[in-house]
Amino acid sequence: MEARKAGQLCLRTVPCGAVALALLLGGTTVAAGPPVQSAANPYSAITAGHPYRHGLVPQLDSPVFAARPAQTPASETPSNLVYGGGTNGVGVTTGSPRVYLVFWGTQWGTQGTNGSGYATFSGDPQGLAPDLQAFFKGLGTGSERWSGVMTQYCQDVSAGAQSCPASSTQRVAYPSGGALAGVWEDTAAAAPAQATGNQIGTEAVNAATHFANTTQTSNRDTQYFIVSPTGTDPDDYQSQGFCAWHDYTADGTLSGGAVNSPDGLLAFTNLPYIPDARSGCGMNFVNSGSAGTLDGVTIVGGHEYAETITDEYPAGGWIDQQGNENGDKCIWNAAGPDPSQNLSLTTGTFAVQPTWANDYNGGSGGCLISHAVLAEVAVSNPGAQANTVGSTVSLQIQASDSANQALTYSASGLPAGLSISTTSGLISGSPSTAQSTTATVTAKDGSGATGSASFPWTINDGSASGPGFSTDHAGDLAAVDASGVRVATVSGSGLNAPAAWSSSAFYGSVATLAGDVNGDGLSDLVAVNNNNVWVETSTGAQFNPPSMWRSNTPFYGSRATLLADVTGNGRADLIAVNDTSIWVMLSTGSGFSAPQQWSPGGAFYGSVATLAGRVAGPGPAALIAVNPSSTWVMTSTGSAFSRPSEWSNVPFYGSRATLLGDVTGTGYADLVAVDDGSSYVMESNGSRFGIPQVFLASAIYGSRATLLGALSGTGTEWLIAVNDSNVWVGSPTRSPSITQWGTGQFFGARATLTGG
Fold first, then answer.
1. How far apart, in Å, are the Cα atoms of 556 and each of 250, 395, 433, 535, 553?
2. Residues 417 and 383 in one domain
3. Reported pTM
4. Measuring CA to CA, which of 116, 160, 190, 397 is 20 to 30 A from 522?
5. In angstroms, rounded to a whole number, what is the distance separating the alpha carbons of residues 317 and 315?
6. Whether residues 442 and 573 fall in one domain
7. Are residues 311 and 183 in the same domain?
8. Residue 454: CATH number of its domain
9. Same domain, residue pair 483 and 595
10. Roughly how many angstroms between the first and final C-alpha of the chain, as a whole number?
11. Are residues 503 and 648 in the same domain?
């Protein structure tokens, strides 16, 4: 006799077959012995002599049970369910369960709609279709706890486990808001008079196509109920003595063989027209008279649903040592602590059976009709964060609860000046201290279930200077050559000997720039080419191998190509300044976004120099246009540049260099003009530049490069002159104000850059 299918619900008058089978459980093949007779529950598959194949359940009116006792205890077998280790990595339904009802065949007749909006059919004499729709639509509503019993099971445990930890993140999901996902009457042809298992599974594939669930991902938490019309005998259920079974398409033991599914593995149920079997399949099992006509529909339908979400692709989920699933161990319980009974949902009242709970009776297990929802709390990790001292932070933490309970938030390791709302999960405030920390956010629901996410958070000092290539955060110099990059770090009152930080050829055909693009508090190298952008991030002691941060995207300005943090999030962004527009590619921390136009309209560039920096203080960098007789600024809102504003109406530029940096240590970037015999500064107050003042009365400029950099590590920038055989620095805060800081050749054939 043919072996029955997964989760088979046996009922009628003929046993499902006493065939010894083998069950692969936890990597070990366990041979099934002869049928076990148990006085605990005479309606069980084992008692009836059915094979255990994924839990077979006998029929109520079988002669085997003619002498059954009037009272039956709640549990069928004493052993708990154990986890089977998963099938193709899947054990249970971890996402919100989705049930698709497929009314198969032209025999269902003309489709209509009742007053509740459910599909009705002229070939449905008992009204099975709207009743089944209302049942699945109502699951997870009205605070029902029948579904809570199943939430104790999970799949992030080892094979053979009998319980799940409170920290489980792959628990059976509660069907919040209903499990019904769709209804379809397939009228392409008449349903077979006696469909094989393969034909039923093939109809599930047809349904997946109809509902556009054409990938394994879209079918992951989905089950298809193939409901045959009245008068048919799907899989010979009447003579074989069962009411329904569930399985999945790849099962080679299906009658007719495994199903070819282009949509991945599909979980499906063979549901005959249950009222045809009358009391054999549960008619009036809970309610008398017409009120109980459809009792069996939801008892049997709920049975298969509960088994599918706890054993999606049998038998990788939760089964006992005899092969019973959670529904099998409790079928047809008419008495005991938790007998079959009515379940009140927002869509109506429906007869259901209890299901097995491993955690009942102190862990010895038992059948329960109601159980607290053991929720899974998931917190989305926002990824690495970077901001500056004094900036405004608003980071919304996203979290979900599988039981749809309210969440309470807490956090540890937040940067100083930030806090989290316990009710909304919004992290806000203004960072007060430069630091690097690991923040951990935890969300907790009313049942005590928690979820957490940890992520790095860097707060830069908020000065107008950069952070430096090395962990000493003291500016540093980088020489970019054709075959590699050398870096000279700062040591007290001078530069250390240059060290090789990269052996890769790394420079841009358009521009080679330096800035902290990933927000870790260290300056990185950026190479801008005609059609792509590459980055070498700093580890603090060397540069990582080159990584492409934007491909197939020409991005450079006809007037200037700049690197600056225009959003204030601590990550430097690319800016392209053209004749009539300004474009930005924002840093994501691991790449650059698609170009965005940030200009308010019209031309904005300087005929002398176009620069970018924090002239308005901590926060987003601004654009500065230096012209022969005036200087204009466009500040950033964090998402666009504002309209230009004149910050100075006097001529200010240098014959050797026109630079931007915080040379006064106020936190605002200042304009510096370097001439042959002296240097001048126009200090920023955050809204204007002041009158020109002497910065250094002596000549200091380099034959190779003239730069500004925070070599002191304090955030105050010095003038740096790089010559053929030495490096000099100058600042009015030093004594003497101009000092030689390095000897020997230190400049790059491709670029000479400062990291701060």
1. 54, 31, 35, 15, 10
2. yes
3. 0.55
4. 397
5. 6
6. no
7. yes
8. 2.60.40.10
9. yes
10. 81
11. yes
Question: Confidence band (pLDDT; 50, 70, 90) for 300?
Answer: very high
pLDDT tens sequence across 147-170: 999 999 999 999 999 999 987 889
Q: Verify that 308 and 437 share a domain, yes or no.
A: no
Number of Cβ within a 10 Å radius of residue 262: 9
**Binning pLDDT at 50, 70 and 90, where does residue 467 land?**
low
Number of domains in the chain: 3
Q: How confident is the model at residue 748 (pLDDT cuts 50, 70, 90)?
A: confident
> How does pLDDT run across 238-276, given as a tens digit for each residue?
888 889 999 999 999 899 999 999 999 999 999 999 999
Instruction: Please give the distance of CA 238 from its chain centroid, rounded to a whole number.
Output: 46
List of residues 6+ apart from 144 with CB closer than 8 A? 138, 343, 344, 345
CA distance 461 to 432: 9
CB under 8 Å to 663, separation ≥6 — which residues? 670, 672, 681, 695, 708, 716, 717, 718, 719, 731
Same domain? For 109 and 200 the reply is yes
Neighbouring-strand partners of residue 181: none
Widest pairwise Cα distance in the chain: 115
Alpha-carbon distance 584 to 592, whole Å? Answer: 9
Reported in sequence order, the residue ranges of 636-749 that DSSP labels E, i.e. its strands, are 645-648, 657-661, 670-674, 679-682, 693-696, 705-709, 718-722, 726-730, 738-743
Domain coverage including residue 242: 22-368
The span from the CA of 48 to the CA of 36, in Å, is 9
| Closest to 167 in 3D by CA, of 319, 421, 376 | 376
Residues 134 and 279 occupy one common structural domain? yes
Tokens of 294: 């459809």
